């Protein structure tokens, strides 16, 4: 197929996300403290949202197993903005259920390939956490979470003073983990790291292609679970409390949250079936492969960036295979945090990230983009859950006169029974548990993760120094 001159090529990862094997999208929800006006939202979409990136006014063109390209097209708002009707006079709790069912319903739908790959759903009904909401359904081919968050922060200013810059939680480890080590420490560590990375890389290939996790209360192992109804529930943690744990353990906020999730998941599995205590269960932790600690860039800078650099808009991510510690082998609950810290640190080394990001490309070159997409699909299907996190501002955002009381996101289209997303906003960390309705108990899982936080918080309060 011949392309028109000047059409921008679709990145390999974007093409994998929009294939016959997998259709991956991001569900983003903005919760507002006041009711929103439909006309104002339409103006916002027309005047600001569409201009964020050329991706919002482009379609993919090209045949299934060839390199596709982005082609500009005319955007008709009526094709992208939806306003659902819920039953009138519902309680807030009933509206919660209606919104949950609505998000589940739209999550499994495909995107028309002759229109730009996004939708906005205006929810006029109040829920227990918001007076009104906007639900964004964005195809992952448009961009990853970092790109989308950069876009959000570029068009939504601070509610208290739009002229002031946004502030964010610190991304640094506690100083207990940053002590200087001598050259004699680093030399053997380099050799060990290379050896360990090679071993991990081989294991990742096996996990992605041949070896499945055990079937457990969090993994059914069934085919086609990405098309089944799902439900979501949220847990809120105080950033200050998570920081207290972080500083005691010499970890990052991400290490602590992952450790709590791992412990809570194992507690849930134990309550459902004690036979799963020793199960082989793996989490895929989504890693932003841009430079570590990379701050959000202005959208204009990202749109003008070289596609081969970390500053460009697009998809820059990889999966880290992290084993969930077996409950029967852990005597100290803090070991779940230490395990997260150790494993994520090791597997996000530059060499490991390089190998993992090149792996999909090798499959693509040998067998084509559809085969690479199937490899991504099997990578997720063979694991037990995914974990993805985003850092949001400490300040409240606003869309015009509408202050945002909350924001959260989830992934849709993945072959998994459990997907967990984490985002910080306004001094709180929100953990969203998205699970398949037929396989999991949302109330029990939420209770177990909340219990895990209490266990870790109390255990960390009893120590005075970090475990090194």
Tally of separate domains: 2
State mean pLDDT (0 to 100 scale).
90
CATH topology of the largest domain: Chloramphenicol Acetyltransferase
Helix content: 25-40%
Largest sheet: 6 strands, mixed
What would you note in describing this structure?
The protein is α+β, with helices and mostly antiparallel strands. It has 2 domains: 148 residues, Chloramphenicol acetyltransferase-like domain (Chloramphenicol Acetyltransferase); 250 residues, 2-Layer Sandwich (Chloramphenicol Acetyltransferase), CATH 3.30.559. Helix content is 37%, strand content 20%. The protein contains 12 helices and 15 strands. Strands 5-6-7-2-13-12 form a 6-stranded mixed sheet, sandwiched between helices. Strands 8-15-14-11-9-10 form a 6-stranded mixed sheet, sandwiched between helices. Helix 5 packs parallel to helix 10, helix 6 crosses helix 12 and helix 7 packs across helix 9.
Would you spell out the secondary-structure blueprint of this structure?
Blueprint: E1 8-9, H1 12-17, E2 25-32, H2 38-49, E3 58-61, E4 69-72, E5 81-82, H3 92-107, E6 118-123, E7 132-139, H4 145-155, H5 183-209, E8 230-238, H6 239-249, H7 253-272, E9 282-288, H8 299-303, E10 317-323, H9 335-347, H10 350-367, H11 369-381, E11 385-390, E12 398-399, E13 402-412, E14 418-425, E15 428-436, H12 442-461
Parallel strand pairs: 5-6, 9-11, 11-14
Antiparallel strand pairs: 1-4, 2-7, 2-13, 3-4, 6-7, 8-15, 9-10, 12-13, 14-15
Helix pairs in contact: 5-10, 6-7, 6-12, 7-9, 7-12, 10-11
